[in-house]
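Exercise 7. Given the components listed, write out the predicted structure of the assembled complex. Treat all entries as one system.
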Amino acid sequence: MCQRITQDTAKRRNPKRSASAMRVLVGVKRVVDYAVKVRVQNNTVDLANIKMSLNPFCEIAVEEAVRLKEAKTADEVVAVSVGPKQCSETIRTALAMGCDRGIHIQTDLRTDYMELQPFSIAQLFQKVVEQEGSELVLLGKQGIDSDCGQTGPMLAGLLGWPQVTFAASLSAADGGITVERETDSGTETIKVPKLPAVVTCDLRLNEPRYATLPNIMKAKKKKVDTIAAEDLGLDLSPRNDVLEVFEPPPRAAGIIVDDVDSLVDKLRNEAGAIP
Amino acid sequence: MTLLLTTIARASVNCVQKRIGAAGRAFSSSSSSIEHFNSGSDSDYDASVQPPTRLPITWFTEDEEMIRYAVRQWSTQELKPIVREMDDEGCLRPNILQDLFDNGFMGMEIPEEYGGSELSFTSACLVVEEISRVDPSVAVLVDIHNTLTINALRFWGSAELQQQWLPRLATDTVSSFALSEAGAGSDAFAMKTTATPSPDGSYYTINGTKLWISNSKEAGVFLLFANINPSLGYKGITAFVVDANSEGLTVGRPERKLGLRASSTCPVVLDNVRVEASNVLGEVGQGYKYCINILNEGRIGIAAQQIGIAKGCLYDIAMPYLQERQQFGRAIGDFQGMQHQYAQIATELHAAELMTYNACRLKETNSSSFVKEASMVKLYAAQVAERTASKTIEWLGGIGFTQDLLAEKFYRDCKVGSIYEGTSNIQLQTIAKLLQAEYKQ
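Answer.
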């Protein structure tokens, strides 16, 4: 049901579009910068004056979307971000990398699992995807703040679309896509014969380009629509309660053992690592 | 005596206005009467106009922050891994040059219509600082290209020259500033390179040898200063845009230097090099003026480079090390002796940084009254960079003296800061002259 509506909407919007060029939507999350050492304060991660940047996996998703556009497989790439006013910078980075326009779902609720959780994010994205008539949604496999990896699969579920996660390579042909996905036991090749679909992107999918200075400036002129999250008529309250947030205990010093027997003894009796 | 008082009064009114936004407007009526005493020499500041932003100098615009972040990403990921090799080899890797163009670092202030990014001067200095924080050799190439040659071309070049060169300078051609000679350093006007006009004046024949020319090995074009008529003295000095491929032009062997080793510094020999009259930058005989004016702003870029060196030492090497290195049972950064030292250095770095970006803002808003500040900032930033690099090595101890860390490279690199683009003595001279001129009866 969902599929038919979105595809019809797309055709109605732009009847002259080439049948094979798809509309792509990319999620871009504003997260704590990967190099920052976070501190826990008041049972939550202290975000005051912390450097924030584009989630690395989202950056990979943006790069893939832009490459699809450069190969003329994608028609238009829309970057979507959920978060506070500063998400405009995150969207602007995506625009500087080559996305055509942005949608900012504005909210001051924390998007690192403390307030907004993947189910709500997925619901917000569902609204935008249906409105835009997107055919391929590219998301990072997880946010490096919450490390959930749930938004992609939940969104696919809500939309009733096929999903492929941990994509390490993506190619499009004949209205469908072929994705190689990496798992702990090896690589699988999955063929999605017909779009629309949700794909989450993993590290080895591509190496994102640097946003060049001219493109950073040109990105200012690209269109960004802002919607208030509350206006989308959803219940955004968290489904899960966060009970406690704490830093992992500091790593204890290692010990050097004299022989294999004492190693086995310590592993079995002290560490409880072997039965 | 009267002049002394009014000058002080005006200076403080200006200060106050810049700091107290709305209240500043109340001062404007009183300042306009004081302004009557202004000889008009050093300030175009119009007190009746809305005062500029009241934000701290260190609060940059969203554009500038995005630009700084983009440069930092590139420089830490692509440039940092090969800095040591480039220093050892004494040359820039070609892929780095290509990256500089691809990322838009080479046509920063060039208008969009010519393929540039149309950024502000402050943005350009931020880029130089960020690159310098990783490799000052690459930063100096970017700085000279953008703040000296490209800007001179934009300010005084004919429409044809701009059309011909700006797009190339933005996309694939490195430029170089050829002023100095064996006998003409601080005394630049003592240059001996001649540009003899042809009988019909349609071209010039240039003969001479330039020395100490940065970027010369990579350059596709030179902004070269030569005298069309030595009997006129410095009033014969003319600026020429010279294609590096010109017949008779040879770039000599790079100097083996103490620092900035990856930056090429070579002699440039001109043997009957023919240059069309259309390649004269601006007017014949005005070269001396152009070179002074462009160096006035170029030196703010050098200050940005020195700030980058200081930050690379203090923030990226010294401070982390001081927390990590333990002696006598504690981090050496905890000892009061060390704390007092790095506090002092951090304070001076902060001051130099503010001076640099204030000079940038002054230049952007006011084209005539930043000369003294630019000299002050180049003088001071070079001194701060040298102190910071030197102290960093001391704090690091033995390892600071080895090539395991980049501190020793920064120490070697920073020394030229007090020498090129106007030695420290010349800066002091300039500052004194301008200061004294405000007080002369």
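Discussion: Confidence is low (pLDDT under 50) at residues 1-12 of chain A. Residues 56-70 of chain A form the longest helix (15 residues).
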